[in-house]
Amino acid sequence: MKIGIIGAGYIGRAIAKLAVGQGHEVMVSNSRGPHTLMSLVASIGCLTGSVEQAAAFGEVVLVAIPLKNYLAVPAAPLAGKVVLDANNYYPERDGNMTELDNHSITTSELLARHLDGARIVKAFNSIRVNDLERDGLPTGTPGRRALPISGDDARAKRQATALIDQFGFDVVDAGPLAEGWRFQRGRPMYCERFDAVGLQKALSDND
Asked: Residues 130-150: pLDDT tens digits?
């Protein structure tokens, strides 16, 4: 599968490495241009391109950027595609966003509103990069760590689940995008380690 990655920070690079390791074709991009990413070609074995090229390249596209820059993500090439949203809201970095501060919208709903027509799945936002790189285990391993997702498109969530499973994690579906607040930054279970049963309980208790 072709995977485009918008954002070359810690999470974007970790997902690129995991995806290449599973045999996927990966193109990584950032706002500064592919000439700043040449080291990734040698170290990971991925392709590099502009944000627009990565968006067009991927059958599935990961967005892992500072949330304040979400309007810079190109909408047209992502229409109809599965977009994995790994963003989190840090007011000290992103500036205050009224809709997020008053909890009238989730971070992923904000991105979905901008990327009208894309099939958004909130994923990979609730795990530290070191854990993402070291905690993956084979399918069926007792106590395997689980990651939460949310989204409004069932087929997109199945694709996200299959990819996360390849990376070594079980998945717990928290429901539609509107329920993504349950594992946003600042919630009690954010970035905590659970197996599938424990994560389901943590999400249910997080009211």
From this structure: 999 999 999 999 999 999 999
Q: What is the pLDDT of residues 173-194, one digit of tens each?
A: 999 999 999 999 989 889 999 9
Place of tokens 């993504």: 180
Strands (E), the chain: 2-6, 25-29, 47-49, 60-63, 82-85, 119-122, 146-151, 170-173
Note if the pTM is more than 0.90: yes
3-class secondary structure, 49 = strand
Q: Contact at 8 Å (CB) between 61 and 6?
A: yes
- In the sheet that holds 146-151, the strands lie side by side as 47-49, 25-29, 2-6, 60-63, 82-85, 119-122, 146-151, 170-173
Region class of 12: left (phi > 0), else alpha (psi between -120 and 50), else beta: alpha
C-alpha to C-alpha distance for 108 and 183, rounded to whole angstroms: 11
Count Cβ atoms within 10 A of the Cβ of residue 207 and give its class: 0-12 exposed, 13-18 middle, 19 or more buried.
Answer: exposed
